[in-house]
Amino acid sequence: MTDREAQHGERALPEATLERLTVYLRALEAAQQAGERTVSSETLASAAGANPAILRKDLSLLGGSFGRRGVGYDVAGLADHIGATLGLKERWRVAIVGAGNLGRALAGFSGFRGHGFELIAILDRSPAVIGRPVAGLRVRPAEDLESIVAAEAVNMAVLAVPNAAAQSVCNELVAAGIRNILNFAPVVLQAPADVNIRQVDMSRELQILAYYAHQGVGHQDAVPPLAPE
């Protein structure tokens, strides 16, 4: 049991459940936008590549009751509860470290404009990019990271730096008080146990995709491509 679990009296959800919850939430939000008030277990489960039994098991871990037999799940209520479970009711103030091609692309990511995420700062060490506008912000010196974190109340960081710099920047973030880091450098970062690090390794995913392609394996339930307009 982690310190957080002991403090809040709750046990962490399984990783697979967390991943499916994010997909359920996306499907529920799409249903809300379409004006739907309820959704069937079959529809919601299939959105995550699961079945109704897995869906019910996932939702049972959240507590509460969200559906009625023959009616389906309340779209707004379930979306709200999943969002709260995922911590999306909190205010996440994000800093991106690295203003290269990847960092600039991430800064323009629309996901920062919803679910409580707010892009607060983008930092870099290169004099060539410091001061340049990116996504409505000016690139700030990475040397000022600690003071920026404190002044702007940053509580989440995205690493978009070269491999060789990733660990040292991670160390600086931890020293500045950041405990939530999304890392795009394909290196395993070392950090204290109370620091949450999520790894986005695109080269690894491409290698796995190449394996499946080489084996002639495809996802039979894949969504067909959109027809050209």
Descriptive report:
There is one protein chain. The chain has 229 residues and is α/β, with parallel strands linked by helices. It has two domains: 3-85, Arc Repressor Mutant, subunit A, CATH 1.10.10; 92-205, Rossmann fold (3-Layer(aba) Sandwich). The chain has nine helices and eleven strands. The strands form three sheets. Strands 8-5-4-9-10-11 form a six-stranded parallel beta sheet, with helices on both faces. The chain has a three-stranded antiparallel beta sheet with strand order 1-3-2. Strand 2 (67-68) and strand 3 (72-74) form a beta hairpin. The longest helix has 19 residues, at 15-33. The protein is globular and about 60 Å long. The N and C termini lie far apart (52 Å). Residues 88-188 form the CoA-binding domain. Its main location: cytoplasm. Residues 23-62 bind DNA. Homodimer.
Q: Classify the beta-strand content into a percent band.
A: 15-25%
Count of runs of 4 or more consecutive helical residues: 9
Alpha-beta classification: alpha/beta
Most strands sheet: 6 strands, parallel
Radius of gyration: 20 Å
What is the correct CATH architecture of the largest domain? 3-Layer(aba) Sandwich
pLDDT averaged residue by residue: 88
Spell out the helices and strands N to C: HHEHHEEHEHEEEEHEHEEH
Oligomer status: single chain
Q: Provide the domain count.
A: 2
List segments where confidence is low: pLDDT < 50 over at least 5 consecutive residues: 1-9, 220-229
Distance between the amino and carboxyl termini = 52 Å
CATH fold group of the largest domain: Rossmann fold
CATH class of the largest domain: Alpha Beta
Count of DSSP strands: 11
Provide the spatial order of strands within the biggest beta sheet: 8-5-4-9-10-11
- Helix content range: 40-55%
What spatial form do the alpha-carbon principal axes imply? globular
CATH homologous superfamily title of the largest domain: NAD(P)-binding Rossmann-like Domain
